[in-house]
Amino acid sequence: QVQLVESGGGLVQTGGSLRLSCAASGRTFSSYAMAWFRQAPGKEREFVAGMPTSGTVTYYADSLKGRFTISRDNAKNTVYLQMNSLKPEDTAVYFCAARSGVWSRIRSNYPYWGQGTQVTISS
Fold it and tell me: What CA–CA distances, in Å, run from 77 to 25, 30, 39?
């Protein structure tokens, strides 16, 4: 029953920044672990960042650590992905995902997904 809507994608130059937002429906947002995944054309959907329901700990793909930051505002039912120092390799459709239970970086563990937002990085 959870509905997720991503926004904030766009076209930026190498080295630029974007902040993606994922708005969730309902009043149970704080009970869900959240994650961001991305998928480039012809490639597998890969884990980007995740955050469990409790605490402020965050998890990232090793290659993205230091450039991307995930955060959440439970009062606004929104999760964010701040992306800095963007590279052409970051070009992909970015998806927000949610699950009730423990955090995971495995995409099949997430039953709820947004529609995705396109991020394009030009050289």
Answer: 7, 8, 24
Q: Tell me which H or E stretch contains 79.
A: strand 78-83
List the Cα angle 87/95/16 in 5-degree steps.
25
CA distance 22 to 71: 10
Q: What values do phi and psi take at 31, rounded to 5?
A: -90, 0
pLDDT in tens, 99-118: 988 889 999 999 999 999 99
How many helices (DSSP H) and strands (DSSP E) are in the chain?
Answer: 0, 11
Under DSSP, is residue 31 helix (H, G, I), strand (E, B) or coil? helix
Residues in the chain: 123
